[in-house]
Amino acid sequence: MLTRRQHEVLSLMAEGRSNVAITEWLTITEKSVVHHISNIHQQLDLPTNDTDHRRVLAVVRSLSR
């Protein structure tokens, strides 16, 4: 289950915002954004290879739950 903050980050990812834009919107560090995104990817059991667009997969997978 995603935390409230992870849902916020995921929503901003779904809007197409970059990590920098997410940091500015949520007033958190870029390191925190990267940490939240990594946790989102893990919790949604997304592949770790470089050929997949994990940001897009995260949004799609969260919508299908």
From TrEMBL:
One of the protein's GO biological processes? regulation of DNA-templated transcription
Name of the protein this chain belongs to: HTH luxR-type domain-containing protein
Name the source organism. Answer: Nakamurella leprariae
Which Pfam families does the record cross-reference, listed alphabetically? GerE
UniProt-listed SUPFAM superfamilies: C-terminal effector domain of the bipartite response regulators
Per UniProt, residues of the HTH luxR-type domain are 1-65
What InterPro entries does the annotation carry? Sig_transdc_resp-reg_C-effctor, Tscrpt_reg_LuxR_C, WH-like_DNA-bd_sf
Write out the GO MF terms. DNA binding
